[in-house]
Amino acid sequence: MGSLVEVIKDDAKRRVVVDDCVALIEAEVHDKSGLSGAGIKLGYKTVSGLKPGMIPMAMNHLLDDFAAKVDPFWQDCQKQGKDARTFFTSKKVEIANALLGITDDRARRSSHKVLVGTYHKLRPMAVEHVGAAMPRFADLVKKHAS
Questions:
Q1: Rounded to 5 degrees, what are φ and ψ at 49?
Q2: DSSP character string of 101-136
Q3: How far is the C-alpha of 122 from the C-alpha of 77, rounded, in Å?
Q4: What is the mean pLDDT of residues 25-41?
Q5: Higher confidence at residue 146 or residue 86?
Q6: DSSP per position, the chain
Q7: Where are the domains of the chain?
Q8: Largest Cα–Cα distance of the chain, in whole Å?
Q9: Mean pLDDT in the chain?
Q10: Residue 68 in contact with residue 5, Cβ under 8 Å?
Q11: With pLDDT > 90 as the criterion, what percentage of the chain qualifies?
Q12: Dist CA 116 CA 106 (whole Å)
């Protein structure tokens, strides 16, 4: 069985995973609509405007922790022989909370006021929005961990 934790140990593969994660985030942000979508788009623009390459850099820093949290779900999916999209979607709240636990901890330790402020404004709707990304996220995990 494949493991995202193992895949990202290879620097070349890690770069591709980071790029795919950034593309997933950008696609999800692009697809948002309505008032909450406008808030997400503004937040993304604010964070990405802080420093060139901010989103890929942040993703690279979070990737080890994210992979460690996602891998047990991926292993369970494989053991059960389930379709990745179906499995991840059925576990979307658990997976979202696992990933957001990492970003919550980072936000608590950060001294970057704009970043933390933006995070706290968007955090109340984060589980819903991360959960909505599960089909794309499952595809990404399957692509790299299979």
A1: -85, -5
A2: HHHHHHHHH---HHHHHHHHHHGGGHHHHHHHTHHH
A3: 29
A4: 93
A5: 86
A6: ---HHHHTTSHHHHHHHHHHHHHHHHHHHHH--HHHHHHHHHHHHHHHTSSTTHHHHHHHHHHHHHHHHHHHHHHHHHHHT--HHHHHHHTHHHHHHHHHHHHHHHHHH---HHHHHHHHHHGGGHHHHHHHTHHHHHHHHHHHH-
A7: 4-145
A8: 44
A9: 94
A10: yes
A11: 83
A12: 9
Residue 38, both tokens: 């406008």
pLDDT of residue 52: 87
Amino acid at 133: A
The pair of structure tokens assigned to 12 is 């070349």
The answer to pTM > 0.85 is yes
Q: What is the pLDDT of residues 36-68, one digit of tens each?
A: 889 899 989 988 988 889 999 999 999 999 999
Q: Which two tokens stand for residue 96?
A: 């979202």
Place of tokens 């909450």: 36
pLDDT higher than 70, residue 1: no
- Interval 102-111: pLDDT, tens: 999 999 999 9
CA torsion sign for 65, 136, 32, 132 is negative
